[in-house]
Amino acid sequence: MNAYLTSVIDNVKKKYANQPEFVQTVEEVLTSVEPVINAHPEYEKLDLLNRMVEPERQFTFRVCWMDDQGNYHTNTGYRFQFNGALGPYKGGLRFHPSVYPGIIKFLGFEQVFKNSLTGLPIGGGKGGSDFDPRGKSDAEIMRFCQSFMNALYRYIGPDIDVPAGDIGVGGREIGYLFGQYRRLKGSFENGVLTGKGETYGGSLIRPEATGFGAVYYLTEVLNHENDPIAGKTIAISGFGNVSWAVCRKATELGAKVVTLSGPDGYIYDPDGVNTQEKFDYMVEMRASGRDKVQDYADKFGCQFFPGEKPWGVKADVMMPCATQNDVTLPWAEKMVANGLKYYIEVANMPTTNEALFYLMKQPGMIVAPSKAVNAGGVAVSALEMSQNSERLHWTAEEVDQQLKHIMHNIYQMSVDAAAEYGLGYNLVAGANIAGFKKVATAMVEQGVF
Ligand code: 2IT
């Protein structure tokens, strides 16, 4: 391997041995872009790669909040501004007990290249807290969000850093965060957050964008194989906002989602998650804060498999939509044994590197990487920023058309980038290379800092 590349990866492995998720994404991205590094020996002199793996700024802050009994609790808040070469830092906030700097760093690093791939002017950042929203009342969520914003507001702004949602942060949380920002600043700067409600600057289709975009990307992959989407069965994990939109768009295009999963296990619905009642119930399950997918099986009378993952079922397409490292090598082996052809990542880094490299090696298997497949979410966030700065509100059709177009471009850019470097039809390497090249060029042109 390229000596400079190896030294950077070794450096990250040593320095961040206590942040394995970050090490994982750095290894995955940087090994993919080796042909670009080989073609640009000047990057070593500029120390471009060591600069890329070091966030530009990292903020950590205390978040103290009061529960409904009047007791106080203290959590840690984060906002890491990873790379601003292409535009204001942009990326979600994750509220989940597993959050620590290694999670924020892996998400932030991925976000930089994903945002680049959208072709829109956004840098990459990520934030969140180890706060656990499970079982919290609405008032507790509001007080937590207000306290979080009391610290965060100093670091963000429509031209500085524009957070959005991620796991545990949806429209409700963005509303409370925005309300507090507005109160603190005394001005209506709705371009400071995306994923807002429609009444105060939110974009139509933003709630659907990640899931719809993922299915549009799947359609591009299937078109390449001359294989229709109609009639396909799809196994997914998760039951949140992304899964909900995947079910809706898949149904609309004649495919059938047969699994959903949660921390408690997975459900198998052979009829498909394909009616308005089922879509609405997913929203209800999420809003309940119970974090249990068993509720779906109880309601619709299908099978529930406690403590298990859906990756052993037979389906034409697998789309992990839940969280990182959901698919490990034994699951990947099971998918191959079941003759899977389409492995489409949706959640951020849902596959361990071991499982990912194994799947990519299988002849006839098509692997699509999350940073391309899920980029429709942040792309529509960037469209929301455009609408806010122009004081406009586009129709759902206008936004959806742009989303389709952006997903097509992301797919095509990835295909072209891999071909340009002699890697064949490699959507993983292609996405990394296309995303990386733009960031690298912008950094070089902006000088050393
Ligand atoms: O992972 C992601 O791209 C997101 N959580 C959405 C980020 C955004 O700014 O819309």
UniProtKB/TrEMBL annotation:
<dbReference type="Pfam" id="PF00208">
    <property type="entry name" value="ELFV_dehydrog"/>
</dbReference>
<dbReference type="GO" id="GO:0006537">
    <property type="term" value="P:glutamate biosynthetic process"/>
</dbReference>
<comment type="similarity">
    <text>Belongs to the Glu/Leu/Phe/Val dehydrogenases family.</text>
</comment>
<dbReference type="InterPro" id="IPR036291">
    <property type="entry name" value="NAD(P)-bd_dom_sf"/>
</dbReference>
<keyword id="KW-0520">NAD</keyword>
<feature type="site" description="Important for catalysis">
    <location>
        <position position="166"/>
    </location>
</feature>
<dbReference type="InterPro" id="IPR046346">
    <property type="entry name" value="Aminoacid_DH-like_N_sf"/>
</dbReference>
<comment type="subunit">
    <text>Homohexamer.</text>
</comment>
<protein>
    <recommendedName>
        <fullName>Glutamate dehydrogenase</fullName>
    </recommendedName>
</protein>
<dbReference type="InterPro" id="IPR006095">
    <property type="entry name" value="Glu/Leu/Phe/Val/Trp_DH"/>
</dbReference>
<dbReference type="InterPro" id="IPR006096">
    <property type="entry name" value="Glu/Leu/Phe/Val/Trp_DH_C"/>
</dbReference>
<dbReference type="GO" id="GO:0004354">
    <property type="term" value="F:glutamate dehydrogenase (NADP+) activity"/>
</dbReference>
<feature type="binding site">
    <location>
        <position position="90"/>
    </location>
    <ligand>
        <name>substrate</name>
    </ligand>
</feature>
<dbReference type="InterPro" id="IPR033922">
    <property type="entry name" value="NAD_bind_Glu_DH"/>
</dbReference>
<dbReference type="Pfam" id="PF02812">
    <property type="entry name" value="ELFV_dehydrog_N"/>
</dbReference>
<keyword id="KW-0547">Nucleotide-binding</keyword>
<dbReference type="GO" id="GO:0000166">
    <property type="term" value="F:nucleotide binding"/>
</dbReference>
<feature type="domain" description="Glutamate/phenylalanine/leucine/valine/L-tryptophan dehydrogenase C-terminal">
    <location>
        <begin position="203"/>
        <end position="447"/>
    </location>
</feature>
<feature type="binding site">
    <location>
        <position position="111"/>
    </location>
    <ligand>
        <name>substrate</name>
    </ligand>
</feature>
<dbReference type="InterPro" id="IPR014362">
    <property type="entry name" value="Glu_DH"/>
</dbReference>
<feature type="binding site">
    <location>
        <position position="241"/>
    </location>
    <ligand>
        <name>NAD(+)</name>
    </ligand>
</feature>
<feature type="binding site">
    <location>
        <position position="114"/>
    </location>
    <ligand>
        <name>substrate</name>
    </ligand>
</feature>
<dbReference type="InterPro" id="IPR006097">
    <property type="entry name" value="Glu/Leu/Phe/Val/Trp_DH_dimer"/>
</dbReference>
<dbReference type="InterPro" id="IPR033524">
    <property type="entry name" value="Glu/Leu/Phe/Val_DH_AS"/>
</dbReference>
<keyword id="KW-0560">Oxidoreductase</keyword>
<feature type="binding site">
    <location>
        <position position="381"/>
    </location>
    <ligand>
        <name>substrate</name>
    </ligand>
</feature>
<dbReference type="GO" id="GO:0005829">
    <property type="term" value="C:cytosol"/>
</dbReference>
<dbReference type="InterPro" id="IPR050724">
    <property type="entry name" value="Glu_Leu_Phe_Val_DH"/>
</dbReference>
<feature type="binding site">
    <location>
        <position position="210"/>
    </location>
    <ligand>
        <name>NAD(+)</name>
    </ligand>
</feature>
<feature type="binding site">
    <location>
        <position position="165"/>
    </location>
    <ligand>
        <name>substrate</name>
    </ligand>
</feature>
<feature type="active site" description="Proton donor">
    <location>
        <position position="126"/>
    </location>
</feature>
